[in-house]
Amino acid sequence: MGKIIVLGAGMVGSAMAIDLAKNHQVTLADISLQRLERVQEKCQSLRILELDVTEKKMLEYALKPFDLVICSVPGYLGYATLSSIIECGKNVVDISFFSENSLDLDHLAKTMGVTAIVDCGVAPGMDNLLLGYYNEKMKLTHFECLVGGLPKRKKWPFSYKAPFSPIDVIEEYTRPARYVENGQLIVREPLTDCEYVEFDRVGTLESFNSDGLRSILFTMPHIPNRKEKTLRYPGHIEYVRVLKESGFFSKEEIMVNGSNITPLDFTCRILFNEWNLGEAEKEITVMRVTLIGENKAGETEKVVFNLHDEYNAITGTSSMARTTGYTATAAANLILDRLFEEKGVFPPELIGKQENCFNFIINYLNDRGVHYNISRIIQQ
Amino acid sequence: MGKIIVLGAGMVGSAMAIDLAKNHQVTLADISLQRLERVQEKCQSLRILELDVTEKKMLEYALKPFDLVICSVPGYLGYATLSSIIECGKNVVDISFFSENSLDLDHLAKTMGVTAIVDCGVAPGMDNLLLGYYNEKMKLTHFECLVGGLPKRKKWPFSYKAPFSPIDVIEEYTRPARYVENGQLIVREPLTDCEYVEFDRVGTLESFNSDGLRSILFTMPHIPNRKEKTLRYPGHIEYVRVLKESGFFSKEEIMVNGSNITPLDFTCRILFNEWNLGEAEKEITVMRVTLIGENKAGETEKVVFNLHDEYNAITGTSSMARTTGYTATAAANLILDRLFEEKGVFPPELIGKQENCFNFIINYLNDRGVHYNISRIIQQ
């Protein structure tokens, strides 16, 4: 039994705290006492702590009693918070998905003797883990991850809901997408290269370029083809592109009725109603990770992992919280059980290369009903 | 040779003044001297007059010397301006297409001994004239008008350009559409009942319900089926409906960055760049008027008029100005030549019932290259 503090009581943070509280002594910290009390109602054994992570001295003081930190603060606070945690000498699992490069903190973590597992959700997260594992088993030539969080119920026109603000979704729709093809870094407009892809339980989805490779851009330079694409219900991207092409995502202020406003701010405000996922609204997570390479027998082998996960109506836990959060709580147990003891900053592809770590996480997720189905094809 | 004043030097007003100046002494009046001088550069024989039509005394004074007035002011000024013109005892042709019912001015016009021909453009205008003419020849059961102004060059996503503000286009896309079916007044959401329709020169267009019947709702109660639909390139309406459904056309103020703004105002501001027709940008007018009824021989006959008109690059005259403006200038000559002398307010269906008036207008348009092609089918 470890002493764990979870920073951030958002949808995923709360689910992680509740999951960990079954076997550990867990404190959930957040800037909002109201939010904390709502989570505590669901799980009496949780301790709660009102905390502003941007107050560095307070954060340091708060972290002192704990064996491990789970960091699930908003992305824009992520890098600074993770830095502070490492400076405090605390082992940490991070899912704040900040835009800075977490590997820049590797030296600090090594110096402080800290194990920091970062980007430890579903994607980034599980796709990295699968890649890391098979990178040891095979001489990989292709890595592809298709992933999307989708509402169960499709409402025209966008057929999309997200538990976070439209500004974060649109950021993903406007940031240039980087992938690697034949060993070359390719930079493409996001929302391009749309393809229809079939999935057993949801039918046809549409994939498009997005900038989701993150650490895999740097940690796997020997794999000549690496690509990540996002999945949406067909039609969504066409309508998003209509908005983008017409100027609705522009960040240049325009004057309307005497006020200067950016189209992007305005559009996010309008789309909030259209895209906001209700608290008990059913959603699903769909992911397909494809790995191609030469296996030990010298054959070309294709390994495909499929994930289909749904909102859990009994516990009221979203699929996004299940698939993201339980990967992180698995990693937390990995550290507490001393299965992974290396010091430094580790995205999950660096964890997956250890067979026992890989199996531990896969089993932990299976126990919670998050199943990755594998199929393997030897190609002629 | 008559003395004519044209009120409003917009795109259509200017084209009408230039057309009439060939055979008459014409004064063009507008609130903007700059705009007037630009038109005068193209046509030296035009006289120009800086005039604010909302200053009633000035308007009365200005109208005194003229035999006939052409009113082509912005729609929101139309009804008041037409009232003033009639009060001055001046014959008038109006194409300001205001939303009020022009027939409310019929009594005043009769009292003042004035002939006022209203809604005298292409649609409303020529469809009314064709209806009025065939209503005398046949026992009509069906009237349908499909009409659209389109850019020659289709730019994704909207494939649309207009010489007026998006606010006026969106008004047409949000006002409930009225039509008559089996003698019943039907009110439908605009943008509904989309159908693909084939046209010889442009290919497939998409028709949808719009509220364009105007006076035909009232003047032709004996025809059980009367319908008007707007034409756009396929896809346009789908994207417009996406905006509408998502709240981009809402008139309820929302707070963005501390300012209260309506989504509609904001959207119009953004779409202005996307939809604004450039001065020398090629556009076309497409119209199909279908009339079905029992002819004099007791047969069911279907009469179809097709119009396809394009921007005139030699004179720099838009198709919208040609098809709308030359219908009005034809009517002006009709009045000046004393071919139509009735007193009151007349939408064109009440002009078209006189064979000589109908022929005069058709010939006048033919002389200017605006051709209505007729096909007649006796149905079994």
Beta-strand share of residues of chain A: 25-35%
**Structural class computed from helices and strand pairing of chain A:** alpha/beta
How far apart are the first and last residues' alpha carbons of chain A, in Å?
50 Å
Q: How many whole angstroms does the radius of gyration of chain A measure? A: 21 Å
Mean pLDDT of chain A: 96
Q: Which pair has the most extensive contact? A: A-B, 24 and 24 residues
User: Which regions of chain A contain 5 or more consecutive residues with pLDDT less than 50?
Assistant: none
Give the beta-strand count of chain A.
18
Biggest sheet of chain A: strands, sense, closure? 7 strands, parallel
Binned, the helix content of chain A reads: 25-40%
Task: Sum up the overall morphology of chain A in one term.
Answer: globular
Sheet with the most strands: spatial strand order of chain A: 3-2-1-4-5-6-17
What is the H-and-E element order of chain A?
A: EHEHEHEHEHEHEHEEEEHEHEEHEEHEHE
Oligomeric grouping of the chains: homodimer
Number of H- or I-type helical stretches of chain A:
12
